[in-house]
Amino acid sequence: MNVLHRGWVMWDALLALCVLGVGLWGAFRSATQALQEQRESSAWAQAVHLSDDLIARMAINREGLSAYQLALGETPASLDCSSTACTATQWAQADVARWKRRVQSELPQGDAQVLPASSDPMQRLVWLTWTAPTASAWIPAPTQVQVPACATGQRCHALWVLP
């Protein structure tokens, strides 16, 4: 065997292992990114579902619409309107308390607020926020002065409604 050809099989095997390693790394990275995107899209879908749920509750209880208000970080008191008679305002407070518990349990570090519009007392801003590791800061457009800015590392879903 020629001295110049010795060791080429070893280099070929090493090169093949490097190519295989890069390919496996790429496949692992793609799978990790797909899982992260799936989790984020699931949270978005859940936020839309939660906001639709509250909007439907507001539309049913238009008489108690003024009581559909909630601040970020607020934990409203629970009312049991299923076993006792409640006014429209109390139903609204029970709806908000139940809905806020769902937001906290179904979104990662979820929080929400419901604010009335300054221009129309019947209009509401339903605003949900949750933790997302890939989220960047979101600054609302200048015409949306009542919509709070979304913090870095958070995702926000803001929806103006007129139930």
Features:
three-stranded antiparallel β-sheet, elongated, 163 residues
Report what the structure shows.
It contains two helices and three strands. The protein has a three-stranded antiparallel beta sheet, covered by helices on one side. Helices cover 44% and strands 13% of the residues. It has one domain. The protein is an alpha+beta fold and 163 residues long. Helix 1 (8-60) runs antiparallel to helix 2. The chain is elongated, with a radius of gyration of 26 Å. The model has no long low-confidence stretch (mean pLDDT 85). It has helices spanning 8-60, 88-106, and strands spanning 111-116, 124-131, 154-161. A hairpin with a 7-residue loop joins strand 1 (111-116) and strand 2 (124-131). The longest helix is centred in the first third of the chain and has 53 residues, at 8-60.
Brief sketch in words of this structure:
The protein is of the alpha+beta class and 163 residues long. It is 44% helix and 13% strand.
